[in-house]
C-alpha cells in the first residue's frame, strides 16, 4: 500500500464521474503526438552532425519507434492502479507475459502498444465494461539502475514522471567523487544518452519518461578515480617486485 500511495502524487484529482486528462506540465508523461514529433526530429538529426551525434540520434529514433509500436510496458514492469471503492482492484500489479495485467477476477488489461500517458484511459475503458462510471487513477514504475558516483548505487523502481535529477537523489545523492557532468545513460551496455544530453536533461528538468528510459536502463553517474596509495602506488610496487623476482630467477639459472 506504500507504493500505491504514489498514485496520488502521480495523478490529478478526479471528479466523481470518472477520469480526466491531466493538464500539460513540463513533467507530463509524453503523449503519442509528442513522441511522434520527437521521432521526426531524431530522424532529421540522424542525417547531420558528427558521427557520434548521428549514432545517438539513430538510437533515439529506434527507441521512440519501438515505444510507439509496442508501448511502454514490458514483462516484469509494475503499474499502480486505484479504483475508488474497489479494494481488490487497487494495488500494484505486475505486467505478465503478453503485456497483460490481471485485475484479479474482473478482467485482463492488455497493454501492448499502450504508452504510459495512455495507461489511465486504457484501464478506465477496461474497467468501465464491468463497473459503471468508475473513478480510476493510475501510475507506472520504471526499474532502472543508478550507478557510479552516488551514495547508494543499485536498481530502483521509480515513477515514470520522476525528474532525472531526482532519480540520482533517490540513490542517496552524489558521492564525494561524483562528476555529474560526465553522467551517461546506457542500455545493455550501449550508451543511449551522452554526457552532454544528460547535462541538458538535468538542466531542463526532464523526466525519465521524456527521455524514453525503459526497464533495465542504467544511469551511470560520472566519478573520479581516487589517486590513493592502494590504487596507484601499490600496483607499481607490486609490478617492480614481480620484475625483481624474475631477475632473481634468471640469475640463479
Shape: globular
Gyration radius over CA? 24 Å
Low-pLDDT sequence parts: 1-27, 229-234, 242-251
- Total individual domains: 2
Tally of helical segments: 7
Largest sheet: 7 strands, mixed
Oligomer: single chain
Strand portion: 15-25%
Mean pLDDT: 81
SSE ordering: HHHEEEEHEEHEEHEH
Please describe what this structure looks like.
The protein is an alpha+beta fold. It folds into 2 domains: 4-139, no CATH class; 142-221, Outer membrane lipoprotein wza domain like (Outer membrane lipoprotein wza fold like, Roll), CATH 3.10.560.10. The chain has 7 helices and 9 strands; from the N terminus they run H-H-H-E-E-E-E-H-E-E-H-E-E-H-E-H. It has helices spanning 7-10, 32-45, 51-70, 119-127, 164-170, 195-204, 229-252, and strands at 78-83, 91-94, 100-103, 107-110, 136-148, 154-159, 184-187, 190-193, 218-221. Strands 1, 2, 5, 6, 7, 8 and 9 form a 7-stranded mixed β-sheet that branches. It has a two-stranded antiparallel sheet with strand order 3-4. Helix 2 (32-45) runs antiparallel to helix 3 (51-70).
Topology overview:
Layout (H helix, E strand, L loop, with lengths): L6 H4 L21 H14 L5 H20 L7 E6 L7 E4 L5 E4 L3 E4 L8 H9 L8 E13 L5 E6 L4 H7 L13 E4 L2 E4 L1 H10 L13 E4 L7 H24 L1
Helix pairs in contact: 2-3
State the main characteristics.
253 residues; alpha+beta; Outer membrane lipoprotein wza fold like; seven-stranded mixed beta sheet; 9 strands; 35% helix; disordered N terminus; disordered C terminus
Amino acid at each position: 500500500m506504500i507504493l500505491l500511495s504514489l498514485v496520488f502524487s502521480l495523478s490529478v484529482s478526479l471528479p466523481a464521474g470518472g477520469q480526466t486528462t491531466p493538464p500539460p506540465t513540463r513533467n507530463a508523461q509524453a503523449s503519442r503526438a509528442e513522441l511522434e514529433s520527437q521521432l521526426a526530429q531524431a530522424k532529421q538529426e540522424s542525417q547531420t552532425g558528427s558521427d557520434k551525434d548521428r549514432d545517438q540520434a539513430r538510437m533515439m529514433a529506434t527507441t521512440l519507434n519501438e515505444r510507439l509500436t509496442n508501448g511502454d510496458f514490458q514483462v516484469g514492469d509494475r503499474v499502480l492502479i486505484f479504483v475508488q471503492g474497489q479494494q481488490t482492484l487497487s494495488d500494484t500489479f505486475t505486467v505478465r507475459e503478453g503485456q497483460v495485467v490481471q485485475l484479479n477476477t474482473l478482467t485482463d488489461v492488455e497493454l501492448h502498444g499502450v504508452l504510459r500517458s495512455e495507461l489511465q484511459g486504457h484501464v478506465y475503458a477496461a474497467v468501465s465494461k464491468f463497473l459503471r462510471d468508475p473513478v480510476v487513477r493510475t501510475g507506472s514504475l520504471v526499474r532502472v539502475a543508478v550507478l557510479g558516483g552516488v551514495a547508494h548505487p543499485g536498481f530502483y523502481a521509480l515513477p515514470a514522471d520522476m525528474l532525472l535529477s531526482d532519480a540520482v537523489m533517490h540513490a542517496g545523492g552524489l558521492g564525494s567523487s561524483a562528476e555529474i557532468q560526465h553522467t551517461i545513460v546506457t542500455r545493455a551496455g550501449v550508451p543511449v544518452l551522452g554526457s552532454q544530453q544528460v547535462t541538458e536533461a538535468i538542466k531542463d528538468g526532464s523526466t525519465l519518461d521524456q527521455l524514453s528510459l525503459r526497464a533495465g536502463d542504467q544511469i551511470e553517474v560520472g566519478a573520479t578515480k581516487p589517486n590513493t596509495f592502494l590504487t596507484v602506488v601499490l600496483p607499481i610496487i607490486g609490478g617492480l617486485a614481480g620484475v625483481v623476482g624474475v631477475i632473481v630467477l634468471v640469475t640463479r639459472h
